[in-house]
Specification:
single chain; about 110 residues; mainly beta; about 10% helix
């Protein structure tokens, strides 16, 4: 068998970053987590019926933000191609409804 010579791919693939609300909460992070162009949804590896959100930053980095209730509600108003800023505001407690007293991850989305 002859030896194969491997060559690098033309150009480099952009790095991919994953953002999880649970990880942000564990790190006690609050603030802007992303500024970038919304590219669309993709299936979550562990829960295919739940969307994750894909963005591209100005430097070409791809960022995937795991879904959460607060984020999902706001993303309904965001179109593919929109340039957005996403901030994580921390965990809050629901004050009414069937899940009163439960905590959730709160996000804020601004569109350019």
């Amino acid at each position: 068998m002859s030896e194969r010579v491997f060559k690098p791919l033309d150009g480099e693939l952009p790095p991919i970053t994953f953002i999880s609300a649970s990880k942000l909460a564990k790190e006690d992070f609050k603030g802007v987590v992303l500024e970038g162009e919304y590219k669309g949804t993709m299936a979550n590896k562990f829960s295919p019926d739940k969307p994750d959100y894909k963005f591209e930053k100005e430097d070409g980095t791809i960022v995937v933000v795991n879904q959460s209730g607060s984020l999902n509600n706001q993303m309904k108003k965001v179109e593919v191609g929109d340039y957005v800023q996403i901030s994580y505001l921390g965990q809050k407690k629901l004050t009414s409804g069937a899940f009163k007293g439960k905590t959730y991850h709160e996000f804020k989305i601004l569109r350019a």
